[in-house]
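Possible regression after last week's pipeline update?

I re-ran a chain I had predicted before the update to compare outputs. Posting the input and the new output here so someone can diff against the archived version. Not blocking, just want to make sure nothing changed silently.
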Amino acid sequence: MRTGILVCLVLSVLSVELNMERHQEEVMSKLRESKWASFILEFAEVELGSGGALTELVEAINQLIDQLEEELDDINHAYSRRTDEHNRDVTRYEQEIQDADRDIFNGEDFIDNVLIPQKQRFQDALAQLKTNIEENRRILDQETVNRKKQHEQFLSNIAEINEAIGAVDESLGLLSQITNPSLVQFKRVQSNLGRIQTSFQNHSSFAPIIKALLELATEQNFADQGSVQQLVKIFNELRVQFVDTLNQETADESAAESKFGERVAQLEKEFAEFQRAVLIKNSEIAANEQKLGETIVYVGQRKDDRATLQAQLQAENDNYAAETDLYNRTVAEYNKEIEISKQALGLLTQPSFEQYVKSKVGI
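New output (post-update):
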């Protein structure tokens, strides 16, 4: 019975050793998939096969793991700093793009809703001023023509009145020659009055009155001195009326000339005001056009700025994405090497590994 128990114990130990050996072979086979781990195992086998120890190798692997982890920490810190820098750049670019969008919107709004309507108002006002100037000049020309016609009419009226007064004076002169009527005087007076009537009848608005008086005078035989005196009285009264009319015409002409002068002064003042308004409006239009041009250029510059910022933001995102991909692959590679190194280290520090290697090399 003891023999049976002993046999069972031996078989059990052999089974455990076989399982451990099989496990080590699986671990080693997996580790050999890595060039680095394969190198470690081959180096260990050579070292043990030549009768050496694995102490220095284990220490070197420990140092390597520490170095890899330290480098990985540096990589993580560098990537963290790069991420912070990226986030700051993205925030700055996005803010500057928003600023450009706002400037473009405000500039275009200023152009569409302020400058262009203002320019149209200025142009309409300038067109109205030019119309006012043309109308002002037309009125001045028309009133100047009318004043000229009035003055010519005045001169004509004065000439007629003077002509009428001259006819009356000539008639009075003839009538004054009659003292003691004689046939010779009678004939001479009638002849002169007839001449005056003939020469005057178609040249004055007073012709009908003078004609009637002259006819009355030529019909008289001047035998009656009372009739002569009556004619003289009538001619004198008529002369007074002509002189009064002459004075009134002269006064009316003076008043018309004064009124015309005042009207010309008023029109010239309005013309000067219109011209000043035109100068001001032209300067306003020039300032508007300058501001419009400057705003259009500014909006164009801000659009260029926005396009540049958008390109820079896209480039930053692309670069960061590429750096993130490189970082992820690098971190994965480091983690893989660290894990493999730790697995290799764990295998090397197991007592059974040294026995396994020695058994493989026949030591």
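Follow-up from reviewer: compared with the archived run. The chain has a mean pLDDT of 80. Marking as no regression found.
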